[in-house]
Design goal:
The structure holds 2 protein chains of 2 kinds. By secondary structure, chain A is an alpha+beta fold. In chain A, about 30% of the residues lie in helices and about 30% in strands. Chain A has one domain: Bifunctional nuclease domain, CATH 3.10.690.10. A 7-stranded mixed beta sheet of chain A has the order 3-2-1-7-4-5-6. In chain A, a hairpin with a 6-residue loop joins strand 1 and strand 2. The model of chain A has no long low-confidence stretch (mean pLDDT about 90). Helix content of chain B is about 30%, strand content about 40%. In chain B, a hairpin with a 6-residue loop joins strand 1 and strand 2. Chain B starts with a strand and ends in a 15-residue tail after the last helix. The C terminus of chain B is likely disordered. The chains are: A alpha+beta, B alpha+beta.
Chain lengths: ~160, ~150
């Protein structure tokens, strides 16, 4: 497992869908992984990234409150599989010294991890197969591109693999 | 405390905002409560009402899976307050360590209640104040779509 961070949450201008760009935390050559997500989960992630204060608990705030209330703890989340065009994740929880793993969409897992300050991991196989170095996929190899603009500069064939 | 049943989730024609139509479970002249909610939660409720099977767990499914894995159970939800045009709700939760009340938007609470088949209650004073009689709406529940209710 490799630890990643949410580098950017952006909108894919081709599909209009939100995309989370994850980037490896450690290492010289940091791989990135793109995960397309749903709109409402994107809001949940965005609100937390920007520390927006909402008047009422949003769904993932409620989820965190529920876990806290029953004295559970979110230890980490991990993107652990990829099938067809879908990434899978699991949330690892701890309660009374016991560990529990729960199947989740990556988007929900990210929204929760950000609220609980839990680390985000990706399975080595998953990032090996689906991740890439920015230099590898840039259309213009000589141009420096900021990660947030990576989508516009990606090879179209790469994008095709991950979108429906 | 009065038990409510979710009659439908509709769209207010004028405001284009989703609205929950909750109906008194017991009693002959059933009072109705309208709660305006946000679109993602309306979608989550609609999925549960229609018993749709999704390929992946949606957010409220995840929430319920987590509660159950941590040996908790949702026992009921209470709509227990209203101010500033907003309804407030409480999630009643039970686990090995005790019983808890968790503050929630009614929409999230109801999305969860439908997934674990627990009763939805409202404070008598609230339904007294905000309840409408079916006759005030029309026999047809879809009439709510034409209601000129002040949106949130």
């Amino acid at each position: 497992m490799v630890e990643v961070k949410i580098e950017v949450l952006t909108i894919d201008s081709n599909t209009g869908a939100p995309v989370v760009i994850l980037k490896e935390k450690e290492g010289d050559a940091k791989r990135i992984l793109l995960i397309w997500i749903g709109e409402s989960e994107a809001w949940a992630i965005d609100n937390q990234l920007k520390n927006v204060d909402m008047p009422r608990p949003m769904t993932h705030d409620l989820l965190k409150n529920v876990i806290d209330t029953i004295s559970g703890k979110v230890q980490s989340i991990c993107v652990n599989a990829f099938e067809k065009t879908t990434f899978y994740a699991k949330v690892t929880l701890e309660l009374n010294g016991e560990e529990y793993e729960i199947d989740s969409r990556p988007s929900d897992a990210f929204a929760l991890a950000l609220r609980c300050d839990a680390p985000i991991f990706v399975d080595e196989d998953v990032i090996e197969e689906n991740g890439f170095l920015e230099e590898e996929v840039k259309r213009d190899k000589d141009k420096d591109v900021d990660t947030k603009d990576i989508l516009e500069n990606l090879d179209e064939d790469v994008v095709k693999n991950y979108t429906v | 405390m009065v038990e409510l049943k979710l009659a439908s989730v509709s769209l207010d024609k004028t405001s284009r905002i989703s609205v929950l139509v909750l109906e008194e479970e017991e009693s002959e002249a059933k009072r109705i409560i309208l709660i305006y909610i946000a679109e993602p939660e309306a979608h989550a409720i609609d999925i549960a009402l229609k018993n749709l099977r999704m390929p992946r767990p949606m957010t409220h499914d995840l929430m319920l899976n987590i509660v159950e894995r941590l040996t908790g159970t949702v026992t009921a939800i209470h709509i227990n307050d209203y101010h500033g045009k907003t309804f407030y709700a409480t999630l009643k939760l039970k686990s090995d360590s005790g019983e808890y009340d968790i503050d929630s938007r009614p929409s999230d609470a109801i999305a969860l209640a439908l997934r674990c088949d627990v009763p939805i209650y409202i404070e008598e004073a609230l339904i007294e104040q905000h309840g409408l009689f079916a006759s005030e709406l029309n026999e047809n529940k879809n009439m709510v779509l034409d209601l000129d209710v002040e949106p949130l």
